[in-house]
């Protein structure tokens, strides 16, 4: 079995791996990205045309990252000459969230935030229904996920990164602080690779990729199949902000929700809405890609009750994966020559360029 050598190997070419490679290659590192599937595949968590750039966090560390992310998204747009982040604004409502506390924290964190009453919000966005105060963040927006991943990878390749597709990674072994070895398999067979650093950004396959690697300990990671849907808007010219709806157990209007709701307009596809982290646990290699009928029915009910601007009977479902930690905090760690980025818990995409910067820094030490 032949062997090759690379300075930094990135395993997984989704958003986080792509951003890591972008930072590493721009920094002059010798980097190779290994992806088991074809470019633009829809088996993981980085595909599709829309993600919310939501700034409704109260934690100062997340808000600091969002400030940096906003700058880095701009840098990627300038480099790629592709529009990636559109400032649509995002509204957050529901009695399950302290919206005034969020407004104060967001404002102190450097983002515009205002509270509107329900009638004012409905007059401005008639496609949504509100029954209480509404937090509006005008500087939030929508990211184009597919275009973002392509831009990171194209930028990385332009700076010298090697992109290796349809190539599985297995048998990772640590041989020293600056020596990690693994087997790659493609249509031509298998060979060993030696690297100074390996960055694992394998998403739902993280646990499988790192199983048995001596010294690498992961927190519990739960892989779920999620199933948002695009609903047909009644008025194709209507303006839609992104939205988040937080239920409360003592509120009869929302107590039936299985989880909070997120959504946004996806141009050309409809108004996207989904339950956040409500899907069943799955094996990423054995999932059905078939939406659960009960969750579909609940989402249709939500659209009927809370999205008057859509036709709740006209929708297209999609599926994706979440890989979540118990507390929804990200795993950004290093053991010897192995760096791990995982557990983005359904809210990591907006932070992608900052996460890539963090992982690249860990790999460069």
TrEMBL record:
GO molecular-function terms, A-Z: flavin adenine dinucleotide binding; sarcosine oxidase activity
Q: What is its EC number?
A: 1.5.3.1
Where is the FAD dependent oxidoreductase domain positioned along the sequence?
A: 7-362
Keyword terms: FAD, Flavoprotein, Oxidoreductase
Extract the signal peptide range: none
- Cofactor(s) in the UniProt record: FAD
**InterPro entries xref list:** FAD-dep_OxRdtase (IPR006076), FAD/NAD-bd_sf (IPR036188), MTOX (IPR045170)
Q: Which PANTHER family match?
A: FAD DEPENDENT OXIDOREDUCTASE DOMAIN-CONTAINING PROTEIN (PTHR10961:SF7), PEROXISOMAL SARCOSINE OXIDASE (PTHR10961)
Query: Any idea what this protein is called?
Result: Sarcosine oxidase
């Amino acid at each position: 079995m032949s062997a090759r050598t690379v300075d930094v190997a990135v395993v997984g070419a989704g958003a986080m791996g792509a951003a890591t490679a972008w930072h590493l290659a721009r920094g002059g590192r010798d980097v190779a990205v290994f992806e088991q599937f074809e470019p633009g595949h829809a088996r993981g968590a980085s595909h599709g045309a829309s993600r919310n750039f939501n700034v409704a966090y109260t934690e100062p560390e997340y808000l600091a990252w969002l400030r940096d992310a906003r700058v880095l998204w701009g840098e990627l747009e300038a480099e790629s000459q592709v529009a990636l982040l559109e400032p649509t604004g995002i509204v957050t409502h529901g009695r399950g969230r302290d919206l005034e506390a969020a407004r104060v924290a967001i404002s102190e964190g450097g983002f515009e935030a205002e509270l509107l009453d329900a009638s004012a919000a409905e007059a401005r966005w008639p496609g949504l229904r509100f029954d209480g105060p509404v937090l509006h963040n005008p500087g939030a927006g929508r990211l184009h996920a597919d275009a973002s991943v392509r831009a990171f990878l194209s930028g990385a390749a332009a700076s010298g990164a090697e992109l290796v597709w349809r190539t599985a990674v297995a048998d990772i072994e640590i041989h020293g602080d600056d020596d990690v070895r693994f087997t790659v398999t493609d249509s031509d067979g298998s060979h060993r690779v030696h690297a100074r650093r390996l960055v694992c950004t394998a998403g739902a396959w993280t646990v499988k990729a790192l199983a048995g690697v001596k010294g690498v300990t992961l927190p519990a990671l739960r892989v779920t199949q999620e199933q948002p849907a695009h609903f047909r808007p009644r008025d194709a010219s209507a303006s839609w902000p992104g939205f988040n709806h937080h239920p409360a157990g003592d509120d009869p209007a929302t107590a039936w929700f299985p989880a909070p709701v997120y959504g946004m307009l996806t141009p050309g596809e409809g108004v996207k809405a989904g339950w956040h982290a409500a899907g069943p646990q799955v094996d990423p290699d054995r999932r059905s890609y078939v939406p659960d009928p009960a969750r579909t029915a609940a989402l249709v009910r939500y659209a009927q009750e809370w999205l008057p601007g859509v036709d709740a009977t006209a929708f297209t479902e999609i599926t994706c994966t979440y890989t979540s930690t118990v507390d929804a905090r990200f795993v950004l760690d290093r053991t010897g020559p192995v760096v791990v980025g995982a557990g983005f818990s359904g809210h990591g995409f907006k932070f992608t360029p900052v996460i890539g910067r963090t992982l690249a820094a860990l790999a460069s030490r």
